Amino acid sequence: MNEKRRLKIGIDYHGVIDRDPDYFREFSRELIRRGHEVHVVTGGPCGTVTETLRKLRFCYTQSFAVLDHYEAEGLVKHETDGGFRVADELWNSAKAEYCRAQGIDLHIDDSLEYLRYFVTPYCRYDERTHRCTLNDEPCLDFNLAPKQVVAHLEKIFSK
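Now predict its structure.
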């Protein structure tokens, strides 16, 4: 009997999950229910995002926050107004590096800025249409039920 491949899916928080938290909560639950991993990948800060996800009862297997990652490396410059600064190149490439290092099969994000750093397949989410494109081709339709989208993902990655 063929065993289904375990997928690792990255989902951005700001611009994806936070735009339709009810839908993405069910999408994430379905992925995990079927034995896949869900990585919430965010700019951060981790504590704030984690608390929001907890309140939403959002299931995921791992999380990564760019701000916390660079804070731990001492690369965040804190401003007197409470803001912070990380070099653009570092910030813009961090999600791509995380996804590559973790073996993420597909990352879902809304930003065009990060796309150029990714070797991991990057599905760009459009909040207006609730669809994702991969290499300018339609990839996922989040107007469909989460079970259908997960089944479509499994089909894509079983090839």
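The mean pLDDT is 91.
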